[in-house]
Amino acid sequence: MLLRGSITQGVENLRPNQFVEVSIATNSTTQAQWDVPNSAIARVNGKTLVFVTTAQGFQAVAVKLLNEGANSSVITAELKGDEKLAVRGVSALKASLLGIGAQ
Length: 103
Description:
Layout (H helix, E strand, L loop, with lengths): L32 E5 L4 E3 L2 E8 L2 E6 L1 E5 L3 E5 L13 H8 L6
Antiparallel strand pairs: 1-6, 2-3, 3-4, 5-6
């Protein structure tokens, strides 16, 4: 995760292009949180979704995005935790959800 900050103390010890490591805590929630690859996340009509594998194919499930990183993101949703998520072909699933493409 790329963040920008302002260092106000100890500035004289810093050098150009130096990196600083930090820890960030998320707000606690009563729902479970999962780290999922960004390729599993779709945005449709202002909603953030993942596609869960079902016996009939895939079901779109709304998720709340808690933290978005470069390669993965932390989500919370009404999931049990043992679901299999689509991580490839998500754009085709999104198009199908929107009624785009072959019927």
